[in-house]
Each structure stands twice: as C-alpha cells, then as structure tokens.
C-alpha cells in the first residue's frame, strides 16, 4: 500500500472508530442516566408519585407528602395550575375522582416529575465531546506509534546511513524496514551501497594491478633489457670482432627480446583475467583429442632437451568438456613448460593422465623433478611467489601457474597441486563432464 493511501486509510479509520466508540458510550450514558433517575429523560418525564384519598383521609402516599402539601396541590388544581414544586423537583399534577359501588368517593392524585431536557442534552453533549476527544487522541497516538516505528524511525536510520555513505563508510548493510516506499527506498540505497562498494573495490584492484604491472615490469624486465644492451654494445664496441661472435651476440639479444615479449603478454593476460575483463569463448570439446593436440605442440621442445612426455588415457568412453580451446591450451602449455623446466635432461619425464569421476574429468600432470616443499606448496599458484622455481629459470614470467588457475576457475573447473620434496610434483585439473548433446550455456 502506498504511503498516501495508507495515511488516508488511517485518517478514515481513526474517524470511524472514534465515532463508533463515542456513540456506544453515548448510549451507555443515556441508559444509566434513565436507570438512575427512574425516568425517560429523552421525553422530559421523570419519576411518578401517587396519592390516594378518601375525602380528607390519605389512604396511600408514595412519596410521603404531608396533608398540607396535598392541600397545596389541590389548591393549584382548583386555580388550574397543574404544576407543583417539591424538593427542587417540578411535578405535573393530574387528579381523578371516582365512586365505588358502595357509594364511597375516592380521589387519586398523580404527580409526574418534569425533567429539564436541556440540562440532560447539555450534559450528554459535554460527555460525548470528552469521550470523542479522548478516543480520538488515543487512536491517533496508536497510529502515530505505528508510523513512528514503520516510517519516521526507518527514514531517520536511512538518513544516518546516507551520511555514512557520503563519508565513504560502505561496510554496514542497510536493512529494508518500514512501509511500502520506505522499504523500497531502503532496498534501493542498499543496492547503491553495494554498487559503490564494488566500484571502489574494482578501482582499488585496478590501481593495485597498475602498481603491480609497473613494479613487475621494472623488476623483471630489468635483467633482459640490460642483457640486450650489453650484447648490442658488444657488437658496436667491437668486442664481437668476428662474424661468428656478432651472430652469437645478436641471436642472444633476439632471445632476450622474445623473453621480454613473453613476460609482457603474460602480465597483460593475468591483469585482464584478474579484473574479470577476459571473455571466454566456450566450446564443447573432446578432451582426449584436445590434450593430444597440446602434447603434439610441445613434444618437439621436450625432445630437443632430451626429456619425455608419456600420455595415459584411462577414460572408458569419449568424454566432452566445455572449455575455451585457445585459453585452455595456454593452461596446458604453461603447466608443461613449468614441468619441463623442473625436470632433468636424459631422465626427465612428464606423465599426463586422464581419468574420470561420476561428474568430472581429471587431468594430472606429474613430473619426476625435485618437487615442491610443504611450505611453498600452498603458494605455487600465487603471482610471482618468491619460492616459485619457475622464476629462477630463464624464459619464465613467473605467472604461468597463476594464469592457469585464473583460466581454469573462469571455466568453472578446479586446479590444485600435490608434491613432496624429491618425489616430483603433480598439477591436477578437474573439469565437469558434459553429454555430447548438452547445450552450451
């Protein structure tokens, strides 16, 4: 119910309830007034007195009139004055004579008390006005208390919360208390608070990532840039005095530029993933064929360093997953490159195993390198973690596993690591299985 309608309804209810209650009290007042005064005040009649006489003898006297008072009544009747004053009450007099069969004569005098109707209605109006005023005040206080609870206090609270928002305090949730528009206003302000909080959080993340990119670029690009300059200076200064040395120096400079390019690409990719600015183009993919394609792309690099990749498919049927093909290939490539750097030539081996659970496909990348210590294991997916061995090997940006984690979780999967010192390390990915006919959402 809208506030305008609510206020109008409250006013009408107060008026109706006041009138009804006042009317009830008016009827009660009239009833007890007539009962206590033995009269019908609304008709101007009060109590009745009767006197029965036989000649000058009083046979019955309902009010205890004296003979003198009765004679005074008869005298008033004789002069056609039908009224009599007695003990501050005014009576109307009627007298009747009748004769019994035995010849006895009797007279009956009837006195009807006259009530002052004006006084009655005056007292009734005063009583009704007082009752009306009392009931109206009580009803108004009850309604005002409800309005205070459901309108005034919520508005006051919202004013305080808006003041907090103005000075930047965004942690306290705003409750949607009160009637109609007040509740809607509270909900709207709460949505505004959440949007402001998210906006500030996002801005902080942007600032943090900007500082992170600047510090990372300045720190991690310093070494390859210095090397490039050194090789070029060697050529220009004549240190490389033969064509063979010049070729060697220039090839090293190109190698360092490729390293810089890889670092910059990884930094930009991680920044977009971390800020949720990267969109995923999801497709339904045969996971076995996808992993085989990734292995084929990297097998040449492993063979060149005299290291092996062994693929084990433990799936009983063809299984599909929903992934972004290009980005998930980047995940596999990063994990394989990281494993390749951690294993030795000749004996180095990376086992890639595919298995399944009731609802998911599990991909395990297990190498036989030196492994990861217990204290470092929880941090292997953090960006630029200092104990990450990948950062100590040339050609690495230090973001490979961090990027892999962002992409896998963006695709709705899970990624984790298990390892023991001296027994190699395993990076494990879990992706939800889908049926071939399932629609991509």
Summarize the structure.
Among the domains are: 70 residues; 156 residues, Histidine kinase-like ATPase, C-terminal domain (Heat Shock Protein 90), CATH 3.30.565. Helix 3 packs parallel to helix 4 and helix 8 runs antiparallel to helix 9. It is α+β, with helices and mostly antiparallel strands.
What's the gyration radius in Å? 53 Å
Q: Fill in the CATH topology of the domain at 279-434.
A: Heat Shock Protein 90
**The CATH C-level class name of the domain at 279-434:** Alpha Beta
Give the full name of the CATH homologous superfamily of the domain at 279-434: Histidine kinase-like ATPase, C-terminal domain
**Low-pLDDT ranges:** 39-43, 386-395
Describe the fold and architecture:
The protein is α+β, with helices and mostly antiparallel strands. Among the domains are: 45-114; 279-434, Heat Shock Protein 90, CATH 3.30.565. Helices cover 53% and strands 20% of the residues. The protein has nine helices and twelve strands. It has helices at 3-37, 67-78, 117-166, 180-220, 222-236, 243-274, 287-304, 325-342, 400-410; strands at 45-54, 57-61, 83-86, 89-99, 105-114, 283-286, 308-313, 320-323, 349-356, 360-367, 414-419, 425-434. Strand 4 (89-99) and strand 5 (105-114) form a beta hairpin. Helix 3 (117-166) packs parallel to helix 4, helix 4 runs antiparallel to helix 6 and helix 5 packs antiparallel against helix 6. The longest helix is centred in the first third of the chain and has 50 residues, at 117-166. Mean pLDDT is 81; it is low at 39-43 and 386-395.
């Amino acid at each position: 119910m809208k506030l305008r309608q609510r206020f109008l309804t409250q006013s009408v209810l107060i008026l109706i309830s006041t009138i009804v209650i006042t009317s009830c009290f008016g009827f009660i007042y009239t009833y007890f007034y007539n009962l206590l005064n033995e009269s019908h005040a609304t008709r101007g009649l009060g109590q009745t007195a009767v006197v029965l006489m036989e000649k000058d003898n009083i046979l019955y006297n309902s009010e205890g009139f004296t003979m003198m008072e009765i004679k005074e009544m008869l005298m008033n009747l004789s002069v056609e004055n039908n009224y009599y004053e007695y003990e501050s009450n005014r009576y109307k007099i009627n007298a009747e004579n009748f004769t019994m069969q035995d010849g006895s004569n009797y007279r009956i005098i009837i006195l009807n008390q006259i009530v002052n109707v004006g006084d009655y209605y005056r007292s009734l109006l005063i009583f009704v006005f007082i009752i009306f005023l009392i009931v109206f005040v009580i009803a108004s206080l009850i309604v005002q208390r409800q309005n205070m609870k459901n309108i005034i206090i919520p508005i006051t609270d919202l004013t305080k919360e808006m003041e907090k928002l103005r000075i930047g305090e965004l942690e306290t949730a705003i409750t949607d208390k009160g009637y109609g528009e007040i509740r809607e206003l509270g909900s709207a302000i709460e949505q505004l608070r959440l949007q402001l909080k998210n906006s500030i959080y996002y801005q902080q993340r942007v600032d943090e990532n900007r500082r992170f990119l600047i510090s990372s670029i300045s720190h991690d690009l310093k070494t390859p840039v210095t090397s490039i300059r050194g090789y070029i200076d060697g050529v220009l200064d004549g240190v490389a005095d033969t064509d063979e040395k010049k070729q060697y120096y220039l090839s090293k400079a190109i190698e360092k530029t490729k390293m810089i390019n890889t670092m910059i690409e990884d930094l930009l990719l991680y920044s977009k993933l971390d800020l949720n600015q990267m969109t995923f183009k999801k497709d339904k993919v045969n996971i076995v064929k996808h992993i085989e394609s990734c292995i084929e792309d990297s097998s040449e690099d492993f063979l060149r360093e005299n290291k092996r990749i062994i693929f084990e498919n433990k799936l009983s049927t063809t299984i599909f997953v929903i992934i972004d093909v290009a980005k998930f290939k980047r995940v596999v490539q990063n994990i394989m490159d990281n494993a390749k750097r951690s294993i030795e030539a000749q004996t180095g081996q990376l086992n890639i195993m595919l298995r399944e659970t009731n609802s998911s496909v599990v991909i395990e990348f297990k190498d036989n390198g030196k492994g990861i210590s217990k204290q470092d294991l929880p941090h292997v997916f953090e960006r630029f973690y200092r104990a990450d061995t990948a950062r100590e090997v040339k050609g690495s940006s230090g973001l490979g596993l961090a990027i892999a984690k962002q992409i896998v979780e963006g695709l709705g999967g899970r990624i984790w690591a298990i390892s023991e010192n001296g027994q190699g390390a395993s990076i494990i990915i879990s992706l939800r299985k889908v049926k071939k006919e399932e629609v991509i959402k």
